[in-house]
Amino acid sequence: MKLVKIVTQHCRRSQVCCCNIRQRGVHNSAQNLYRYDGRNAPINYPEKSLYVKKHLYDAKTHKEYADAMSFLKAKRRKGIGVFLENIKMISDVMKQGQTPSHIFYVKDAVLEKLPTLHESTKTVQITDKQMARLTEVTTPQGIMAVFDRPAYIPPSRVDTIPLIIYLDQVGNPGNLGTIIRSAAGAACSSVITSPNSADAWLPATLRASAAANYLIPLHERLGFNEVLETLPPDWNICLVESTSENSPKKHPNSLPYYEADFTQPTVMVFGQEAGGLSAGIRDLAVKRGIHNIIHTYIPTIPELDSLNVSMAATVLIYEMAKQQSKLVKRDDSGTVEYLSTVPDDSLHDITELVNEDVPDVADVADVEDVADVAQKLEVMFPPHEDTKETEENLT
Q1: Model confidence, pTM
Q2: CB contact at 8 A, 110 and 143
Q3: C-alpha 118 chain-centroid distance
């Protein structure tokens, strides 16, 4: 092989002899082919990487694994695959109607925990060492499922709240996954990411979201101007400040999140933790001119500049869910009806329930004798049995 000849020519100058590469394959490890020569300069072998890959593939127990590895690497390189390594997440995604194209597993017991597999799913049993080469987690569960990225957008739920989450340049996959999970848990309308945000289908993002990507409409790489073009005029735009209350960067009209009005349909915009919202986002929102703009922030102690963006998003998402719940009316069948305003008699039923068996206070006020008042109070609120025993012991 050409590579062996190249290595042999340099073995006299190299610190490590690789002449036995024919008999032993790669000498100790592939890193030995990058040893330095006597002049402390690296020896570059163009064919090295190709040789090592071919050697590793040929050393596998069966050709099926080599073919599957080629497929897996192509999926990752082109960014068209979804890789899940958690049994529960794989099961949940399969229950959503998704079919894995490949499943790599170590033990049969792990495979038996999944729902019934489709006949098109290809299962490949591998060793622990082979799984270690595939996985990206520290403690793998001995399984990896490969799905295609969904080409559809899941339909909105009946109880969806009118809240769209727009993420401006949120580049951390963990933060993105956590926000997707919180938005799906609160039944938000959708999550939209900007062109410079993290990939929503990376393994790290999916682990943080617990595969909630399949439970909420998700749009990637959309500019804020594209969102505004399709946004109805009655929707508010909420620009979330990433600074603390006393920061000079805070907008002068910014309100604490608990004072903001989220009873109307809203687009919440979150930016980077360090830089906050980009200037282009603010300019587009102002130039649009037809939407009510809300500036809000989450108060913190002076020593703390801001919260993690995923934590801030979770707080604000559920604050709006709380305010929106006052506008929702459900009947016995579970049908949801959205009200335009909070009903004035919303507390009437609760008041009647509390006062149903309580005597009129005027009946007590008309009694002049203090003893009679005490006697009537005892009738209204009889003492507990333990209280009676305590009084008898004291007497």
Answers
A1: 0.67
A2: yes
A3: 28
